[in-house]
Specification:
It contains 11 helices and 11 strands. It has 285 residues and is an alpha/beta fold. The chain has 2 domains: 168 residues, Periplasmic binding protein-like II (D-Maltodextrin-Binding Protein, domain 2, 3-Layer(aba) Sandwich), CATH 3.40.190; 94 residues, 3-Layer(aba) Sandwich (D-Maltodextrin-Binding Protein, domain 2), CATH 3.40.190. Strands 7-6-8-5-9 form a 5-stranded mixed β-sheet. A 4-stranded mixed β-sheet has the order 3-2-4-10, sandwiched between helices. Strand 6, helix 6 and strand 7 form a beta-alpha-beta unit. The chain is elongated, with a radius of gyration of 20 Å. The two termini are 30 Å apart.
C-alpha cells in the first residue's frame, strides 16, 4: 500500500520544541475541494497520544484536551471529535490508514518544553564502556519496541555497524524503570530520552552518557489531506498565536506546553530518511 504524506511524516516524529507541522496534499486535493471549502464539513476526528506508558487513562486525556479541542473546532469551523490513543501500534495503524484527520503525539509523562530532544545511551559511572562502539555483545535496555526512542537508538546502532536484532536487548515501556534498572546494575547500557526524568538527571547523579543522538523533532501536530489547505493555514495561525493571549496561554498550560511554532516539512523528511525502514534494515556484512 502506498504511504500518504500524512503517514510518512508522522511515523517517526514528535517535537519537544513545540513545533506545529501541519502537512497537507495541497495540490489535487485543494483543487478538488476548493468549491466545498465554505460548506459545513463532516465531523473531523483528532487523535491524541501521550504514549502507552503514561499514567493517564483515555478519559483523562479527553478531559485534558477538551478546551484545546474547542480552539481547534473554532479554527476549522467544524465539529471535531477527540480520540485518545494509548497503544503505539493502534496509533501507527490509524495514521497509516488515514483514519484521523488530525493527530498530535507526545512522549508519555513529559511536559513539553523548549529544550533539545536526544536519545541517550547511558552507563554507570564505573562502566568500562566509552562509546556506542563498545556496546556490541553487552546487555541493553531500551524503550518499547518501535517507540520513537527505540527507532532512534536502532538507527544509531545501525550507523555504527551494530544490529539491535543481534544483541541482548530488553525493552521496557517506562523510562523511569530503565533508569532504575541501570542504577541497580541489571544491564550494561540503557537508552532514554534526554527530556525524560532519567535522561535529565543521569549525569547529575553521577552516571555517564556514552552516545547522544542528533537533536530530533518531537511532538508534531499534523493534518491529513482530509483537512483543506485553507483550514490548515487558519489552524496553524491560530495555534502559533495562542501563547500571546492570556486565555490561549491558560489552555496551553492545561495540556502541558508553552506554545507552538511552525516547522518546515524538510525536518521530518530528513528524519525519516535517516531512520530508514528499521523493520527490514540489515547491517552490511
Amino acid at each position: 500500500m502506498k504511504r500518504t504524506i500524512f503517514s510518512t511524516i508522522f511515523e517517526f516524529t514528535r517535537r519537544v520544541t513545540l513545533s506545529l507541522a501541519l502537512a497537507v496534499n495541497a495540490s489535487a486535493f485543494a483543487q478538488k475541494h476548493a468549491a466545498k471549502d465554505a460548506e459545513p464539513q463532516a465531523r473531523i476526528t483528532f487523535a491524541i497520544s501521550e504514549g502507552g506508558s503514561g499514567n493517564l487513562t483515555a478519559t483523562d486525556l479527553l478531559f485534558r484536551y477538551a478546551e484545546f479541542n474547542k480552539i481547534v473546532e473554532k479554527a476549522l469551523g467544524a465539529p471535531v471529535t477527540l480520540i485518545a490513543l494509548r497503544d503505539i501500534k493502534a496509533l501507527r495503524s490509524s495514521v497509516a490508514t488515514g483514519a484521523h484527520a488530525l493527530v498530535m503525539s507526545r512522549p508519555a509523562d513529559v511536559l513539553a518544553e523548549a529544550e533539545p530532544a536526544h536519545a541517550l545511551f547511558i552507563v554507570k559511572k564505573d562502566s568500562p564502556l566509552k562509546s556506542i562502539a563498545d556496546i556490541k555483545g553487552k546487555s541493553i535496555v531500551v524503550p518499547d519496541r518501535y517507540a520513537y526512542m527505540w527507532r532512534i537508538a536502532n538507527a544509531m546502532m545501525r550507523d555504527n555497524k551494530i544490529s539491535m536484532a543481534n544483541e541482548r536487548v530488553r525493552s521496557m515501556n517506562d523510562q523511569a524503570a530503565i533508569g532504575w534498572s541501570m542504577e541497580s546494575g541489571f544491564f550494561d547500557v540503557g537508552v532514554v530520552a534526554s527530556f525524560s526524568p532519567a535522561g535529565r538527571t543521569w549525569e547529575k547523579n553521577g552516571g555517564r552518557v556514552i552516545a547522544r543522538s542528533p537533536e530530533v523533532p518531537n511532538m508534531p501536530l499534523i493534518a491529513s489531506p482530509k483537512v483543506s489547505a485553507a483550514r490548515v493555514q487558519k489552524l496553524r495561525a491560530v495555534l502559533v498565536s495562542l501563547e500571546s493571549t492570556e486565555g490561549g496561554a491558560a489552555v496551553l498550560k492545561q495540556i502541558g506546553v508553552t506554545g507552538f511554532r511552525e516547522a518546515p516539512p524538510q525536518i521530518f523528511i530528513d528524519l525519516t530518511k535517516w531512520l530508514g525502514d528499521l523493520e527490514t534494515s540489515k547491517v552490511p556484512g
